[in-house]
Amino acid sequence: MASSSPSSSRDDPPLTPRDAAALLARCASRAAAAALHARLLRCSRAFFCSPYLANCLGAAYSRVGAASSAVALLRAAANPNLFSHNILLSALLGSGLLEDARRLFDGMPGRDAVTYNTLVSGYVAGALPNEAFRLFCAMRERGVRPTAFTFSIVSSAVGSVGRGQQLHAAAVRHGLAHRDAVVGNAFIDMYGRIGLFQYAARVFSCMEEPDVTSWNSLMSAYKDQALSGAVFKCFRSMRSKGFSVDGFTASTVLSVCSDVKDFANGDQMLALCIKMSFLTNFVVCSAAIDFLCVSDRLSDAAQLFRGMPTWRTEPCNALMSGYARSGLMEEALSLFAASMRNGVVPTEFTFASVLRWSSCFGLMEQGTQIHCLVFKLGFQHDVIVSTALTDMYCKLGLTKHARKIFSAIAKKDLVSWNTMLLGLLHNGRGKEALVIFRRMLKCGILPDRITLFGALSACSLEGLVTEGMDIITLFKDRYHNLPSLEHYTCVVDLLCHAGMFTEAVNYVENNLPKFSAATFSNILEACIVQGNIGMAELVAEKMVMQKSRLSLPYIVLAQIYGSRCKWEKMAGVWRSMESHRAKKVQSCSWLCIKNHIYIFTSEQILHHGKGATYEVLDLLFWDMMDDKYAPSFVEPNKSEGGLLQLFLDHPQ
């Protein structure tokens, strides 16, 4: 650029320090900074006797990404002052030399707020939140007054409630919490991230002059807590107070509409995006594509995607997920390949999405190809991608591969542990799943409801009644994690597998606040499978008395009465079933043949796949004939002769 690139001619006008500083402030490239540096050296080395121009030149090098040049210059500078040290500190951090920066910091004769802010930023960027917070505390102990930037950068490193409240209190004492919008917005984000959305709302309500970012931060906090009603209310208040909506606002509201399937509000938000030309923003466009996919308008989503001027990662991810959710895995993989050809570099979320849906449809060949691509692009150490690979191999039944990938994850998070736990469980490896559960607790990972579900299911699979009850108690007493319906259902399955049907019924009646047809249905199915017809009759009668809309208890009772020639009671059960509009649960099967996936119900099997489907089914049938896979049947009681067979003839 002419304004910042000095000429090399000998006829150049004399350059004053003030002119040089102005040129350095406008430098926009390394070449321009280096050319001006050379011109200053040709003019006179006396320019660098004072630290003023050396500081300006070092700042210019750092700004244009030449941190190493700034470090070399400032380390050799004569008579460095506090500004020199601050610029050098920033340059060292820009070169990734965090330890050198700390040594420079410790040896500095004087430090100001800029010094502390620079090193705190380096710790935050280096994912060292504890060191960042300790340095902030040391800053206050030394009497250096924190600035608004200090609080905003430290808040991004806070991961606990105690530290968050401590930081908030310090900001209140310095008069920045309510008066400075930047600090207030940072605290809203912080409280939303650590799960204290009530505190986030309180910070917002106390702000003297909230801006659009404040409203967006509050809505984002509500969205993370799945409080869709609060998001919509906040959006309406924002509009009524005269604040203009931006792209972040639109994408947040659209995402909430997708999450709760609120198509009416979503359509209104989509119309507003079109009116205000927000769809040119790729983040808003991604949210709109996701909303259209969720509302079963794939063709509109694809048309919106095709109308984008350039290919971007986020819209591609949204449309791929939409295709996969609708069972169009071939289209999803084709879009993935097309995005690669158009220069879109996949992110960890791209791989996580594609691997997840590939494993759901059993596409082993495509999954392993994507695994190879993960290694080629260097994503093998990313925890999100590694977790997705672990999940994929578990769903494909390749637990050995899954364990190898899981073991290689350096910093396993809760999602990684839960994925491995549930993956082993789904492959019938209950004992190994419990080993993973115990290792997880020893590593200090705080379990959640998914962990509890996996641990209880593993105990049920292995018939460990006592250990399952101990785990329930552990979660209540130590982790204060109260069981929900899914956990009580696991305990019921555990008791039923052990043949403790009476205890299972009592447990449900004593712990669940209201009748659960699904839980009693599990007990009923277990009674039938284990041949306990007396208990099956008792449970079925309880379900019929509660006017269950599941067909299973009516079918079981009718068959029991029919086997005893109680025809009037049998007819009454059928009439009751019809009056309560009980329905059979419909299910489907899917079959992958080469690159095609066929999904069908029992009524549709003649219309899908034709000969290829039956050829694969024949192979599976002959494989089942092997003794290793031969199904086993429960021997029915002689007194109840054909009851089990009747049940099998009339599935739920």
Polypeptide structure, described:
It is a single chain. A two-stranded antiparallel sheet has the order 1-2. Among the domains are: 53 residues, no CATH class; 61 residues, no CATH class. Helix 25 runs antiparallel to helix 26, helix 27 runs antiparallel to helix 28 and helix 32 crosses helix 33. The N and C termini lie far apart (76 Å). It has 652 residues and is an all-alpha fold.
Approximately what portion of the residues adopt beta-strand conformation? under 5%
User: Which segments are poorly predicted (pLDDT under 50) over 5 or more consecutive residues?
Assistant: 1-10, 628-652
Total count of strands = 2
Q: Distance between termini?
A: 76 Å
Radius of gyration: 33 Å
Biggest β-sheet: strands ordered side by side in the sheet: 1-2
Shape label: elongated
Biggest sheet features? 2 strands, antiparallel
Count of discrete alpha- or pi-helical segments spanning 4 or more residues? 36
What oligomeric state best describes the polypeptide chains here? single chain
Which class do the helix and strand fractions yield? mainly alpha
Q: What is the arithmetic mean of pLDDT?
A: 79
Helix content: 55-70%
Short description, anyone?
The chain has 652 residues and is mainly alpha-helical. It has helices spanning 17-25, 30-43, 51-63, 67-75, 82-94, 98-107, 113-125, 129-141, 148-155, 161-173, 181-193, 197-206, 212-224, 228-240, 247-260, 263-275, 282-294, 298-306, 313-325, 329-341, 348-360, 364-377, 383-395, 399-407, 414-426, 430-442, 449-462, 465-477, 485-497, 501-511, 517-529, 533-545, 552-563, 567-579, 610-624, 643-649; strands at residues 589-593, 596-600.
